[in-house]
Design a protein that fits this description.
- The radius of gyration is 22 Å and the shape is elongated.
- The chain is built from 11 helices and 12 strands.
- Helix 2 links the parallel strand 2 and strand 3.
- The two termini are about 35 Å apart.
- The strands form 2 sheets. The protein has a 7-stranded parallel sheet, sandwiched between helices. The chain has a 5-stranded parallel sheet with strand order 9-8-10-11-12, sandwiched between helices.
- It folds into 2 domains: about 170 residues, 3-Layer(aba) Sandwich (Rossmann fold), CATH 3.40.50; about 150 residues, Glycogen Phosphorylase B (Rossmann fold), CATH 3.40.50.2000.
- By secondary structure, the chain is of the alpha/beta class.
Length: about 350
């Protein structure tokens, strides 16, 4: 790492009510930043969901009710003497960003929607390639997807036939779509003898797996997944998946997933969804060559090293900020030229 280690703060929440994907991607970046030598403090209203693998390496600080308000958080960051903040876009709004930057904090936002907020770095999460002429302060494209260290350096997936295991996981928050999926697959003859691994949202979840669903994704032959962070993990493990966007902010990710040949996308709100799901599942089960094509495309697109790339980008940007700050201080100390 160039320059001195920075003291950085992370601001993210997650539980079974709001989902866990925001915590998972921040945790992946935290691992990479720690490995790069930085010092981290994590501020959260749900500190219990910070992975145990991180808890002994960073300072986890719970936020009291109202502690996320602009003035309160600014004072907290000032008292903690951090150099900058990495915030989840959903809870780091434009007024707060403006206040933090006016106070001299370096700021990065993780997420695809920032609603007019200004930051020193935007870290987008999706399968789409960076746009030509995109601003330099954006990390974008599948090479910047934030995944835990276990997703990097994996061997290519071996495609089994016949299918032995189906994984169903629609994210960390409860959704009625799961019931619709299970109804559609009930008594489907093709699933006879197939192990079905269903991951349900557990109310009051207080633990976040360090590597998400890595073991389950690797064990499965096909998956039916929500179009959140787990879809990124599936691509990295070469798992043929059917993506179901269960929230408005997942629709574009699901669209990209199919458009780039990484898997299949279905709208659970569309008429004929149940039959469409059955047909898609039959096709994947009966066509190993298509599952292999999805596997190779996913592995090529998402290599699992995105967190390291983003951490390196942050290191360079923070180092440049430190250099400018030190230069200004030195000039002031020297006094006016004579």
């Amino acid at each position: 790492m160039n320059g001195m280690p920075a003291r950085l703060a992370i601001r993210a929440d997650g539980d079974s009510r709001i989902g866990l994907g925001h915590m998972m991607r921040c945790a992946a970046l935290a691992h990479a930043l720690l490995d790069a030598g930085h010092i981290l403090t994590w501020f959260s209203r749900t500190p219990q969901t910070v992975p145990a693998s991180l808890a002994h390496r960073i300072d986890v600080r719970p936020l009291a009710p109202g502690g996320e308000a602009a003035g309160s958080l600014l004072q907290t960051l000032t008292d903690t003497r951090v150099d900058g903040l990495i915030g989840d876009w959903q809870i780091t709004d434009a007024p707060l960003c403006a206040q933090l930057r006016r106070a001299g904090f370096w700021l990065a936002l993780i997420g695809n929607h920032h609603n007019g907020a200004e930051a020193d770095l935007f870290i987008h999460q999706g399968f789409g390639a960076p746009l030509a002429g995109a601003l330099a302060q954006i990390c974008e494209g599948p090479e910047h997807i934030l995944l835990a260290p276990g997703y990097a350096g994996r061997s290519p997936r071996t495609i089994r036939s016949p299918v032995q295991r189906l994984l169903i996981s629609l994210g960390g928050s409860d959704t009625p779509v799961l019931g619709a999926v299970l109804d559609a697959l009930d008594n489907l003859p093709e699933l006879e003898g197939v192990i079905i691994d269903i991951k349900r949202a557990v109310p009051g979840t207080t633990t976040l797996p360090a590597t998400g669903l890595l073991d389950e994704l690797c064990a499965a032959d096909i998956a039916i997944l929500g179009a959140g962070t787990t879809l990124h993990e599936a691509a990295a493990t070469g798992l043929a998946a059917i993506a179901l966007p269960i929230a408005a902010n997942q629709r574009e990710r699901a669209r990209q997933f199919q458009a780039l040949g990484l898997g299949i996308s279905l709208d659970p709100a569309a008429e004929g969804f149940a039959e469409g799901l059955r047909q898609a599942l039959r096709e994947l089960m009966q066509t190993p060559s298509r599952r292999q094509a999805f596997a190779r495309a996913g592995e090529a697109a998402v290599d699992g090293r995105g967190a390291c790339r983003v951490a390196s980008r942050i290191s360079h940007l923070v180092s440049a900020t430190q250099t400018r700050s030190n230069s200004t201080i030195s000039s002031l100390a020297a006094g006016p030229a004579t």
